[in-house]
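quick one, two chains, predict together pls
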Amino acid sequence: MKPVAVDAMGGDKAPGEIVAGARQASEAHGVPVVLFGAPDAVAAAEPGGLEVVPCAEVIEMHDDPGVSVRRKKDASVLRAAEAVRDGRASAMVSAGNTGGAMASALLRIGRIRGVHRPAIATPIPVPGSLPTVLLDAGANAECQPAWLVQFAQLGAVYARVRYGIEEPRVGLLSVGEEATKGTGLVKEVHALLAEPAWRERSGGSFVGNVEGRDVMTGEVDVVVTDGFTGNIVLKTLEGGMRFIERALLDAMTSTEELRAAFEVLWPAVLPLVTDLDPDSYGGAMLLGVDGVCIISHGSSSATAIVNALDVAREMVAGDLVGALRSAVSA
Amino acid sequence: MKPVAVDAMGGDKAPGEIVAGARQASEAHGVPVVLFGAPDAVAAAEPGGLEVVPCAEVIEMHDDPGVSVRRKKDASVLRAAEAVRDGRASAMVSAGNTGGAMASALLRIGRIRGVHRPAIATPIPVPGSLPTVLLDAGANAECQPAWLVQFAQLGAVYARVRYGIEEPRVGLLSVGEEATKGTGLVKEVHALLAEPAWRERSGGSFVGNVEGRDVMTGEVDVVVTDGFTGNIVLKTLEGGMRFIERALLDAMTSTEELRAAFEVLWPAVLPLVTDLDPDSYGGAMLLGVDGVCIISHGSSSATAIVNALDVAREMVAGDLVGALRSAVSA
């Protein structure tokens, strides 16, 4: 397998944690990796024997994605996308500016033929069950009905290839179970998803509308929504979970006696905390571009990058892109 | 003060828990209450000395709100709204069908002059801080810019009257802090809220866009959004919190040893669990109708009803409706 192109400069903890993760994935998991970034900065982060493609520029977290992909021709994330386009890399991973990674993949790798708009698919942890795939988690703030129908197809294929779910249950996010609930967009999409057409090639089933409370349950495998709502759901959950974890931890360690009791409980709680950690999931997948493109959380640690690289390898091996192509081709 | 009209028949645990809560609020807290419901059912729930206005019908949880408010003229929630309209009650509380309660209040009590659309304002618990007021939490799935600007005014007034915040910080829910992020609606509302006009009479300040992760922090007092997004945020948080609580509890009590340690920690954790319990907040307020109208959670317990009645009394005493009237009048 061709190496996975890693944007060594993208992310709040780049290049240190990114390079450390890439090296670990290569040395301990045997994932082939090629790093893209400023040679000095990458060298200082000790890349071991990994190949480094020198790039003079970086799309920073605060950069405007549209402007920077045009101006920063030698940006690490753009170069990584070019490597996928040119067949020198099998996939790309970036924890940098989300818009920058999206624009790089779109401009350099391009869309799968027939795809209206690529969508960001994010696994939502459901401890004790497989994650729920939420899409679009932020690529398209405003969507047309046909795009959402296609998100259902892309999401169903992804849930099958990544989690081995034979017939993924797809739900449409709304404010009530009834087909009459929600915005005009949602009602229209509901009617389209109720038709058998979209399912034939994607292999999913439509369970109807689901509500916010269903996202973190094992009742549905794929939740389809527009990128505005999806991004808000994702960040609300992230914020809420982090808040509760911190508040509980503070309450449970406020005295010596409590801390002693907490130490007994910690090993039992740890798996749950790990399950809820976004770093455990390796990041979001940009579905609909003609290559495997993983956009990891800006706060990604080395562990997150290791997980992202494992997922990248698995999705290349499982031919995710081929499966997506057959699902959307006319 | 005139009694608060309680829909004794509304809610998953009606009339038992509703009547129990009403009686407790009356006997222990001195809140004047009048119950609306089927005489036999209410009598069986032991209303003590509370006045009962007999009603022959109930808008059930699964009823279509629009249809039932027209057909069920003697529904308990409609009668409660009529009592507010006629000045026989100072406020109304219902834990029943949300759409039914909204429609009853709208049709019988009517809007405050100048209000485009009433909105549901729900307090989101922020342990260690005052709750964040989220609106619209579900009354209007599709909104026009002017409605959202008015939600900012209604929300600011509510945060001031209910929580004593002198200059409530109002944020607009979006997918990024920049004014350029979000849907067309959000961008338009951002520009309108950045103008001083809306603040003059409502007393709020605009902190700009906020993201999903900011909802459960003390960084903002009021979060404004459309009713589709707001309802999904609310239910996502409810579902996520309940899920985490249950998963943690299961993990922490899976063996004898763990259970013993957990019993030490429980008193430290309990205040947090109580803070996060929607029953602690007494329900949502329908802001913009010409009377105090509280719509409690369908799962409301007696405690939730006691809290709702305390809030109702406080909002009548603090003249919430008068303050809302001055904020929106032209």
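The first strand of chain B starts at residue 4 and ends at 7.
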